[in-house]
Amino acid sequence: xxxxxxxxxxxxxxxxxxxxxxxxxxxxxxxxxxxxxxxxxxxxxxxxxxxxxxxxxxxxxxxxxxxxxxxxxxxxxxxxxxxxxxxxxxxxxxxxxxxxxxxxxxxxxxxxxxxxxxxxxxxxxxxxxxxxxxxxxxxxxxxxxxxxxxxxxxxxxxxxxxxxxxxxxxxxxxxxxxxxxxxxxxxxxxxxxxxxxxxxxxxxxxxxxxxx
Length: 212
Fold this sequence. Notes:
Layout: H1 3-14, E1 16-20, E2 23-35, H2 37-46, H3 51-62, H4 68-72, H5 90-94, H6 97-107, E3 114-117, E4 131-139, E5 142-149, E6 152-153, H7 157-170, E7 176-189, H8 193-200
Parallel strand pairs: 5-7, 6-7
Antiparallel strand pairs: 1-2, 2-7, 3-4, 4-5
Pfam family, one: Thymidylat_synt
Keywords: Methyltransferase, Transferase
Protein name: Thymidylate synthase
């Protein structure tokens, strides 16, 4: 069982129940997921991830593209519920990523923490980023990438964020040592619990419902 599937199992076995405006969730607080390149390969090979769509999505984010139609044009429709424009969402912050990556590749300073902050407090929002901070550090010539996620849908959002972080790491001209996600609240929606059990039992055809 890979580390991603392990956290799904822990939520099912040990998670608490909570009701919110989107429905009922089973959740854990303050979990950490530390992934080496081998762990990442294990996850990507054993769990269905829409790699092409997520790569296109990150590229649009980094271009600062806020028009939902542009995402639909590359086959991404999970932003449709936000309306026609993404306000204070990932593009607002990820457009700062290309110059940050260029700076890291230019400097490669072991003593410096390179940080991308996401989510301005009090700003107008129709989908505030769940990923709140990404930190790039260099340790003995290797890249250590850390992220804080305030809220994580373990079925849909978490695999996508893992892959986005991997794609960011691939743009740094250093070998990747590990990616660590600190998850403030990681959860499974009640309507996806049985499907999660099927996934853990080996059913790779399972599809999860989006809760918004």
